Amino acid sequence: MQTTRFVLEQQEIPTHWYNVVADMPNPPSPPLGPDGQPVSPEQMLAIFPGPLLEQEMSGERWIPIPEPVREIYRLWRPSPLIRALRLEQALGTPAKLYYKNEGVSPAGSHKPNTAVPQAFYNHQVGIRRLTTETGAGQWGSSMAFAGQMFGIDVRVFMVKVSYQQKPSRRSMMQAWGAEVFPSPSNLTQAGRDALAKHPDSEGSLGLAISEAVEEAAGRADTNYCLGSVLNHVLLHQTIIGLEAKKQFEKAGDWPDVIFGPCGGGSSFGGIALPFLADKAAGKTPNLRLVAVEPTSCPTLTKGAYAYDYGDASGYTPIMKMYTLGHDFMPPGIHAGGLRYHGDSPLISQLVHEGLMEALAVPQVATFEAGVQFAKAEGIIPAPESCHAIRAAIDEALRCKATGEPKTILFNLTGHGHFDMASYDRYFSGKLEDFDYPAEAIQESLAHLPKV
Amino acid sequence: MQTTRFVLEQQEIPTHWYNVVADMPNPPSPPLGPDGQPVSPEQMLAIFPGPLLEQEMSGERWIPIPEPVREIYRLWRPSPLIRALRLEQALGTPAKLYYKNEGVSPAGSHKPNTAVPQAFYNHQVGIRRLTTETGAGQWGSSMAFAGQMFGIDVRVFMVKVSYQQKPSRRSMMQAWGAEVFPSPSNLTQAGRDALAKHPDSEGSLGLAISEAVEEAAGRADTNYCLGSVLNHVLLHQTIIGLEAKKQFEKAGDWPDVIFGPCGGGSSFGGIALPFLADKAAGKTPNLRLVAVEPTSCPTLTKGAYAYDYGDASGYTPIMKMYTLGHDFMPPGIHAGGLRYHGDSPLISQLVHEGLMEALAVPQVATFEAGVQFAKAEGIIPAPESCHAIRAAIDEALRCKATGEPKTILFNLTGHGHFDMASYDRYFSGKLEDFDYPAEAIQESLAHLPKV
User: Fold this and answer.
1) Domain A5-9+67-108+232-445 has CATH 3.30.450.20
2) Torsion of Cα atoms, A124 then A127 then A129 then A135, to 10°
3) pLDDT score at A332
């Protein structure tokens, strides 16, 4: 029996996260406040704890993972690296396909990798309550779980249309003791204003962020948590790639190309950045690191590299990143986690400087890839993960044509158990592809803030 | 960092299943046909393949696991044995709690352990098509997955009310290429008869079995699959306990008591029977093996040990087992997998002869236990599994009172991702307990077939 699953002992969970800032050719551009000046740590301390702000700004290559965080990680980590041998056989490719399965976490995705340390550091500085927003519910359920682990109350503002349509994710958050409110709610000024204007509002992620931030800013015992985009979030996610490197050593193999789905950038950064260290150091100059995004929200492939707001309403500091414009409204695709107008500033800069690549794939083809994967490997992937699978299968088929025995790694960021309604739409032929027209992107890019 | 997860290499997947018949004090009572005579293999060959019938009748202690089955098992097996250290701490018990996590399988439960060999042996004898029934969908999705692995078409008759209420499970079966029909359907005489009488029928598991068996019996290229109760099903499930024994050896520990949820008996048998071998041989005389069932369907604790039909309509052979009577209609509890009037003949005999025990627990308390487990260990358990968790927590609390440092093992038979609506009812206080009145049981027991 050939080994196809490469596991590590719990003791082999990495002791440090990797901070790519130490190895970037150029320093990252700082976030700017309304006055055009770099945002000061003091301004951010109203909603983030000191240790996370330090990580956000740090240039240190290795940041120690606190032991209590490793203790929680061991509930599901190290996650397995799996060789998709049956998929290779089904494709008839000489390529070797590997995936890192982040769907084994309590919440079913990679999100707890950062939710847990975020809860830990907030607990450490005496915070009793955390607020956050959630769309489809992956991030909210991860924060609910993480808060429960450290005895912190978690209040989740869930976009109202998801609150109504995804009761399973809501119940999951409640199982971990979180309070879940449909947004817009009556609990905040932002929510009340929205309801006054549109009593039947279905909510939006931007509005839910506003509610969560408002509540955190207004209470000394309460902080706010974000599940992607920021440097410290990507830092925590490097646990994925760091484990994968140890596992490839055990497998006696090494990737030639790595694919990850990319929305806010945290899961792609998580798997790719630790490998980028070697590439930046010239050890693996031909290694390709490819962010895969939807054609309907083509931030890295069709956006501008410019300063823009992180949210839709323009409440946040502005950050230098690839963006489609903060008032760009992507269509309601099923990979909700990839539906973001901007991207991580770190990933954006690395793509801009040519150390990483980006690729856009259409929705229907991603579900087709997901079903092919499920039939071969048994795991039903989240719609976000299907983007990386599509790209990996396409690469494997190119290898079939050329005869190249490449080693391909992709990030299986989560399982699709809560996304079966999306699969149902795919099976019934109701899914559509959507190429965002270039003029619409130009229009929203015209509203970028002036720097 | 203390080790809490005991993993095995893929090469350590057992090479043989364990057949408890070899170690039972008395031979099992044979199933009887309508003529009161033991059913002949020839009669069964219309719907089952020869190799499975051989296993059904075998007295051999060890049955080799075919290599192609082990190759599929490795997609998720060996499953982890986990020490629930955080739950122990939350309970403040001196007991050590371990669980075997069968929720890591593609379908999310222990069911693929037998679905895969059933598909394999049918494939081996040239069967092209398999039929089966499913209620909540765990078994149907496991057969869909297993059929896909060997290129066999799978047709699932899904109880109509579940078909309508559980679209996620339905889509999961479709993702693995199965055809799913609401039962009663127009595809069989049994279905057409039912629809003629009750055009709005919501279906029942008994009727879905009739449809699946009718179709299998009428076509030479088609066989039928059952997910519990029968000897060969329990045989395949012993992979759970066999792995657990290897893992306990690595942990340097050994269970004093084992709890498993018990409906048709396959998951309980799967974890308990390999340990029973040592108990029957006098090596671990004090080991307790406890089947946990719902108070609303108290087969082992309040049923009669007698010959009865396996289905509700009286189409199957009769089997000697604990039964509440084949026309007993348990209330619609959320642990659908435990809602069966009878039980495995092997488990029934071992309980009757005092080698195993049984315990009934009420529904609300099982969800309470499931939530306590989720908050400590991060995994949201299936409602069936919550029964074993309830019993394990109660035992751990007794240990707290007495100071005994017992080692407790329970079977986490599946995750609860498709059961969040049940949790939602629990959170909203809508769940009820249901003790079946003794008179109602007496009434259905009055209809047992005469032998």
Assistant:
1) no
2) -60
3) 75
